[in-house]
């Protein structure tokens, strides 16, 4: 199963202060919209998302169809609906399931045994969708 790019999505109290802090660690803004309350930052292969007022707690995030370099994966990825089917067959029920017959962008959320939130967020279409 190919889960795609990995990042940590951080719920932040002050977007500007968090941006400044992570820029001091060598991260650079590569995406997002500060006016909407979110930014994506990268330092080599490490990716973090800063999100103000969008969710509680931090989230481990995987993006099927997206590479760690921030480009589409050329169709060589596991669709989020297939990820959901594999997880269900392994006894892991998503907290936020999706329509197994759907197409295009979608996301599922699962929680690990320690209560950590994991989001598998596919925001690209498969080439055949």
From TrEMBL:
One GO term in the molecular function aspect is:
dioxygenase activity
Annotated keywords: Dioxygenase, Lyase, Oxidoreductase
InterPro entries per the record?
Glyas_Bleomycin-R_OHBP_Dase, Glyas_Fos-R_dOase_dom, VOC_core
Q: Which residues form the VOC domain?
A: 4-123
Keyword Oxidoreductase set for record: yes
PANTHER family in alphabetical order:
BLR2520 PROTEIN (PTHR36503:SF1)
Q: What name goes with this protein? A: Catechol 2,3-dioxygenase-like lactoylglutathione lyase family enzyme
């Amino acid at each position: 199963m190919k889960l795609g790019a990995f990042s940590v999505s951080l719920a932040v109290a002050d977007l500007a202060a968090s941006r400044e802090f992570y820029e001091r660690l060598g991260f650079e803004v590569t995406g997002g919209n500060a006016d909407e309350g979110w930014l994506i930052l990268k330092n080599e292969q490490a990716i973090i998302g800063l999100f103000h007022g969008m969710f509680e707690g931090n989230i481990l995030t995987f993006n099927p169809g997206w590479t760690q370099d921030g480009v589409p994966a050329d169709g060589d990825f596991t669709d989020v609906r297939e990820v959901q089917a594999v997880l269900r067959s392994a006894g892991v029920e998503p907290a936020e399931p999706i329509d197994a017959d759907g197409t295009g962008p979608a996301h599922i959320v699962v929680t690990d045994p320690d209560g950590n939130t994991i989001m598998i967020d596919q925001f690209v279409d498969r080439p055949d969708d």
